[in-house]
Amino acid sequence: IPAAVIISSGFGEEKSDAAAKRAAQLRELAEKLDMAICGPNSAGLVNPLRPLVATFSPVFHDTTKKLLPEGGRAKPIAVSCQSGALTFSFLSRGASRQLKFTTQVSSGNQTVLEAHDYIEAAMDSGAADIFMVYLEGIRQPARFRAVADKAAQAGKPLIVAKVGRSAAGRRAAASHTGALAQSGAIDDAVFRHHGIIRGEDIDHMVDIAAAFAFCKLPKGNRVAIITGSGGSAVWMADILSAHGLDVPELEKDIQDKIMAMLPSYASALNPIDATAQAIGEVGYAPIVRLVRESRRIDTILLISSVANETTARKRAEELVGIVDETPQPILMATYTTATPGAMAAFSEVGIPAYTSMPSCARAIKALADYGAFRDRIARRAAGA
Fold first, then answer.
1. Dihedral angle at the C-alpha atoms of 365, 370, 376, 378, nearest 10 degrees?
2. Which among 97, 125, 96, 33 is positioned nearest to 105, based on CA atoms?
3. Per the confidence metrics, is the pTM higher than 0.85?
């Protein structure tokens, strides 16, 4: 038997001599038998590529739900998490956005294998291109950095929630998995060096993963906004600016071409307020075709209402093929509520959709920062 998953608790997270002895014996046994052991204190693992569901997580109690989206365009995502409950929360929140979760492992106490070991295995096997990690502690920092460097060189983003920044968080980590959680300036420096995106919460990590799953990397931090709502244009411009992104004015010739399609009371400066009437009649596609010719734009952001699923699907279908032809990444934000079907409609054509303007801005910022990081790596490799 080359591998095992140990769900049982009573090891490193328990403060007793007997528990410490059990953990030591387990480590010795794994080394003696050359056995890969996940856990203990693990919620199990899931790999739909096998397929294998070896967990008691309620996320998988409904056996009618498919493990992977059908015909999805998303790049595959691997999850490695010290928290059992949180391990499968990313799939639960990201499935409606057509995200493709492959290897998902609850690493538990990490007595034998650590979270980065599962990440490296998924990387080496080609099971994933994006990695989401929740960490309370790192026993072997040098190994973690080696895996992070491997991901950086391969251009595969690591989104890591490293908790324990507060005294209360460190106490909780010690009682949860027995981790000696430390998080601060050193973590931040390591993350910057390896291009690791720090995850702030579950939704933030899913939002960032969605951007990487569907989007090309932008060449810079300049964003074009196309919307039928003037209010959302102003608000989003402020939010993007607050996140360190630029919303530059478009070239005059491109403005003129856009205005030829719009009513006189519209604006093509950037944000492009096409008005609701023009969006209803013209759609987003012709405007995107013009905006993508700009040398001042690195990312294109569409803002729309997707409260009506039928209309949302129509808008998405108009953009079929355009995503692949456009050098800039395209994202969509909605200022109204959205059904899972409306969100999925955009995902199916390769556009991640967001129901929160700040979340969308953070996703664009993450793409831009990682693009800049990749450029730095390329320059170092070239000796520039």
1. -140
2. 125
3. yes
Tell me phi and psi for residue 179, to 5 degrees: -80, 140
* Sign of torsion over alpha carbons 367, 154, 380, 117: positive
Distance CA 275, CA 229 (A): 6
Name the pairing type of β-strands 130-135 and 197-198.
unpaired
- Write the pLDDT tens digit of every residue in 56-96: 999 999 989 889 998 779 999 999 999 888 999 999 999 98
Among the ranges given (81-90, 136-145, 150-159, 170-179), the one the predictor scored with the smallest mean pLDDT: 170-179
- Token pair for 165: 């920044």
- Report in angstroms the alpha-carbon separations of 43 from 8, 84, 288: 9, 5, 45
